[in-house]
Amino acid sequence: MSPARTSPPAEGPQLGLRERKKIKTRTAIRDATYALIEEQGYDATTIEQIADRAEVSPSTVFRYFPTKEDIVVTDEYDPVLLAELAGRPMDEPWVDSLRHVTRMALGHGLEREPEITRLRARLMATVPAVRSRMVESLAVTGRQIAEAVSARTGLDRDSLEVRVFTMSLVGGLAEITLYWAENDFRDDPTDLVDRALAVLEHGLAPQHGLAHRKP
């Protein structure tokens, strides 16, 4: 079986030659990383091996990805999805907008590169260094989403309310990935999205008989 390959998104305007070369290099580095991890595991895979497999220098790898963990937790889809979120109708309920964009994100991964999507989720769930870097990356994503939230609500992007909302959102989406991997990918990810968004929208529903239990 041929190794899984990553595929950059096709949406958006035509890119110039320089940007296409950058995407090609990033894709080659990711492909090399995932192939090596499949062969020998995450911890055994080094930047030098990745560079050799991708036919670039180690300094080039570091120029595109400051750490090995960044290769796993970053992708090309964030700008596309953030633009999609910002472009949703202003009067659309937030949950509907988030459901649309989150399902689009899942579609990108599961339809175009299902093996890589599952490998990334498994690494996030099982490798502490990857999970830690994922948490740091979520803070950046949260700040980007805050721009769309601010535009939709008129609230200051740095307000406590916007910060709590956006970090609750990105944290919840991260937990979908971890839960999915920890349960051997048995669940339908779109169902997990709906369940997570229901919690954000309505809070936790107590189990029958527990609501009136006295301490």
TrEMBL record:
Signal peptide segment: none
**Could you tell me which species this protein originates from?**
Streptomyces ossamyceticus
HTH tetR-type domain sequence ranges = 23-83
Q: Give the UniProt keywords, A-Z.
A: DNA-binding, Transcription, Transcription regulation
Q: Which Gene3D superfamilies match?
A: Homeodomain-like, Tetracycline Repressor, domain 2
Q: Which domain of life is it from?
A: Bacteria
Q: What is this protein called?
A: TetR family transcriptional regulator
Asked if the keyword Methyltransferase belongs to this entry, the reply reads no
Q: Which residues bind DNA?
A: 46-65
PROSITE patterns for this protein: HTH_TETR_2 (PS50977)
